[in-house]
Design goal:
The protein has 487 residues and is an alpha+beta fold. Helices cover 35% and strands 18% of the residues. It contains 16 helices and 17 strands. Bound molecules: flavin-adenine dinucleotide, D-malate and zinc ion (ZN).
Length: 487
């Protein structure tokens, strides 16, 4: 809700470029211009122009390391098309050369799915950024895959409507990437994930053919749900080039409360109580250690009179928002609460939550484990995960926060080498033991594919493999992502 994420996002990405440099990958001197290196590059340059085929390591660097600095490797080259036609031509050429492709949008993904693993072609979709005129009657718009969430939000708002998904990475994350990861975000409790906003899609398949379901009405029926299938496919089934998105009426009133609680169990009780009393737009949780990191970095003052073990942030929207939230808080007997209605005050409360990602990344390269638990297991999980992480190293830190209303916790582990996966293994096994899911809103990516079997059955994985083989028989699209290695 702050709209101020971009500077931090860009800052951290600059830092990541430094991490890549420090990791021993040699770079030629600065100032070299892009030069097309091989036959594949020459063919691609025929399609997009030489200026949009990047072969020089310095110009490629920002595309090759992920936002966290944990994942990435040199690409074969970076190619930047501007139209669906160009994407189709690129995929055909790569298919002929059997050159694997990694699609990339804003590169804000947190599971290493949008950066090369080893020498793939990096296909950047950012130039497909057009946002069409909003259809106010059908409440929809069509956007290029490379349009940022912020651009879509601006277009919707200019027409008196809203786009229902919101993320702190809004200034960089693209709608193509958000569909590919089936992103959730801070309003998922009310409106669901990206899949629920998708009215249509246009995508380039692994043979270069284009499937388009952009013009069908929302209730259009007939055949398999290709739109739903591409949502959450993480670049492994097709390259998304355009999407038709559902819009919702803009809410004119909003109220936000920050509530101090002494335990995760109390937070869950409050979440359940609030949901029983009114419609909730956002219901988030963070803990004292995360708040301390945010405050040390931002200089923000203590948000409540007392210090608490955990904090619940709740937002209510629509007519009588302040009154509805206020009376729900009173009914639950909550007293150490900050209630904000004016936009600046709401933004200030949200900034305690929305700047956590950057505050954690500023401490080191985190292992980010985005997981979901049944709400009645959340407290047990939190009680177990902190000592579990600490048992691996005295230097380990485990900072938790997340989307409380849907049981989606972000486990951020600091103090481990990038490729030390012991702690990832331990945390994901704990999640599975408690009946949770090892992936929630960030996708599986390269980071968690080796653990997919913990929460997906052999039959489920076989079915997914069959779909992958049918649509991408030569494993051209994002190999090494989502599906676990074959036995
Ligand atoms: P990328 O990182 O570029 O790619 C992500 C994946 O999608 C990769 O597998 C890539 O191959 C694939 N992909 C990208 N574009 C296409 C395309 N056009 N066609 C096919 N495949 C494609 N996520 C949430 O869900 N909720 C949050 O609240 C949230 N908050 C965040 C806050 C911060 C500060 C940051 C840095 C990240 C946050 N994220 C969040 C994670 C991230 O922003 C989302 O995963 C987002 O959806 C990624 O979009 P992107 O355009 O950056 O995709
Ligand atoms: C969030 O909810 O802020 C994000 O998903 C980002 C993160 O996990 O760091
Ligand atoms: Zn999140």
């Amino acid at each position: 809700m702050t709209g101020s994420g971009i500077n931090d996002v860009l800052l951290s990405r600059t830092r990541n470029a430094r991490v890549l440099h420090e990791s021993g990958i040699r770079r030629p001197p600065l100032g070299k211009t892009s030069r097309v290196a091989d036959e594949l590059g020459n063919e691609l340059a025929e399609v997009v122009g030489a200026a949009h085929v990047l072969t020089d390591p310095d110009t490629r660097a920002d595309y090759e390391t992920d936002w966290t600095g944990r994942f990435g490797a040199p690409s074969r080259l970076v190619v930047r098309p501007a139209t669906t036609h160009e994407v189709s031509a690129i995929v055909r050429i790569c298919a002929r050369h059997r050159a694997p492709i990694v699609p990339q949008g804003g590169n804000t993904g947190l599971v290493g799915g949008g950066v090369p693993r080893s020498g793939q072609v990096l296909l950047s979709l950012r130039r497909l950024a057009a946002v069409s005129a909003v259809d106010p009657i059908g409440r929809r718009l069509v956007a290029g895959a490379g349009a940022t969430l912020a651009a879509v939000q601006r277009a919707a708002s200019a027409a008196g409507l809203e786009f229902a998904v919101d993320l702190a990475s809004r200034d960089s994350a693209t709608v193509g990437g958000m569909v590919a990861t089936n992103a959730g975000g801070i309003r998922v409790i009310r409106y669901g994930t990206m899949r629920a906003q998708l009215l249509g899609i246009e995508a380039v398949l692994a043979d270069g053919s284009v499937v388009s379901r952009l013009s069908a009405p929302a209730h259009g029926n007939g055949g398999y749900d290709l739109i739903g299938l591409l949502a959450g496919s993480e670049g492994t089934l097709g390259v998304i080039t355009r999407v038709a998105l559902r819009l919702v009426p803009a809410e004119t009133e909003r109220a936000v409360a920050l509530i101090g609680v002494d335990s995760t169990a109390a937070a869950v009780r409050i979440a359940t109580g609030l949901r029983g009393l009114t419609v909730i737009d956002a219901l988030e949780i963070f803990y004292a250690d995360g708040l301390a990191l945010v405050r040390a970095r931002s200089g923000l003052r203590r948000p409540l009179e007392s210090e608490w073990a955990a904090y619940v942030l709740a937002e209510v929207a629509g007519a009588g928002a302040e009154m509805r939230l206020g009376s729900a808080l009173a009914a639950l007997g909550l007293d150490d609460v900050a209630l904000a209605v004016a936009p600046d005050d709401r933004r200030r409360l949200w900034s305690y939550r929305e700047t956590l990602t950057e505050a954690i990344a500023a401490e080191g390269v985190p292992h980010k484990l985005d997981v979901a638990l049944p709400l009645d297991q959340l407290s047990a999980f939190v009680a177990a995960v902190v000592p579990l992480v600490a048992s691996y190293s005295a230097a380990a830190r485990c900072v938790l926060f997340g989307h409380l209303g849907v049981g989606n916790l972000h486990v951020n582990v600091l103090g481990f080498a990038k490729d030390d996966r012991r702690v990832d293994d331990a945390v994901l096994r704990l999640v599975a033991d408690l009946g949770g899911s090892i992936g929630a809103e960030h996708g599986i990516g390269a980071a968690k594919r080796d653990w997919l079997r913990l929460t997906r059955s052999a039959e489920d994985i076989t079915a997914m493999r069959s779909i992958k083989r049918a649509l991408d028989p030569h494993e051209l699209l994002n190999p090494g992502v989502l599906l676990p290695p074959a036995d």
